[in-house]
Amino acid sequence: MAEWPHLIESDILGLPHGFLTGPQSDRGELDRVGGDLPTVSLKQVHSARALYVESPWGEMERPEADALVTDRPGLRLAIVTADCAPVLLADEKASVIGAAHAGWRGAVGGIIEATVALMVECGARAEDIVAVIGPAIAQDSYEVDERFRGEFTDEDERFFAPGRDGHYQFDLESFVAWRLSMAGVGMTDCLGIDTYANPTDFHSYRRASHLGTPTEGRQVSLIALPR
After folding, report:
1. Vertex 32: Cα angle to 30 and 35 (nearest 5)
2. Per-residue DSSP letters for the chain?
């Protein structure tokens, strides 16, 4: 039996949202977040590009980016992940929402800052934004090497625990939470759920790679601005 419900939510985010479980995340469950609304998604490329959504685009027209922001009621934003950190954001007072795909490369490159900045352009106040970091690979499961460590600054040392010789354990969730804090976000909830260590509920790209099994599966994370 799955340890987590099919739709995981955070108590601090009042707008419709959720992180779907299941190795393939049944997209038929999308309407559990916000009801019968059009869903907007992206071709995610590990970039620092955040896009404003004024109206839905077709599945074949999805642009390349890694975050979505809207202030238009009646839209549902969706991102997919498989070890990277899904981040859902909202300023309920301003009725502005965002969804970001934050892998290590996007987080280092500035995807969090780009998302918050675009939300502020839409009328949000950074200090009023609430963010939730969903299921992602945890530090105990995320072994990295010296080359990976070299992509970060000396200031980031606290996010790397010593590992076996020439390796470290990287804390992606804490790194993303810190970037949210530095961007001025008022409150962040870290769910602390390890995709790698929960094969019943979550697909993990790294786990699949280690096991030699298909790596295509993804989880879907959603946030909606009701009509």
Report:
1. 90
2. --SS-SEE--TT--SSEEEE-STT--GGGGGGTTSS--EE--B--S-S-EEE-SS---GGGPPB-SEEEE--TTEEEEEEESSSEEEEEEETTTTEEEEEEE-HHHHHHTHHHHHHHHHHHTT--GGG-EEEE-SB--GGG-EEEHHHHTTS-GGGGGGEEE-STTEEEE-HHHHHHHHHHHTT-SEEEE---BSTT-TTT---HHHHHHHT------EEEEEEE--
Do the Cβ atoms of 111 and 50 come closer than 8 Å? Answer: yes
Backbone φ, ψ for residue 159 (5° rounding): -90, 5
Which residues are within 8 A (CB) of 21 and not within 5 positions of it... i.e. 6 or more apart? 2, 4, 5, 6, 7, 8, 135, 201, 202, 219
The class (CATH top level) of 7-225 is: alpha beta
pLDDT in tens, 76-110: 999 999 999 999 999 999 999 999 999 999 999 99
pLDDT band at 27 (very low <50, low <70, confident <90, very high): low
Query: Could you tell me the pTM of the whole model?
Result: 0.94
Burial of 102 from C-beta contacts in 10 A (0-12 / 13-18 / 19+):
buried
Q: Strands of 160-162's sheet, edge to edge?
A: 143-145, 167-170, 160-162
Residue 2, pLDDT above cutoff 50 = no
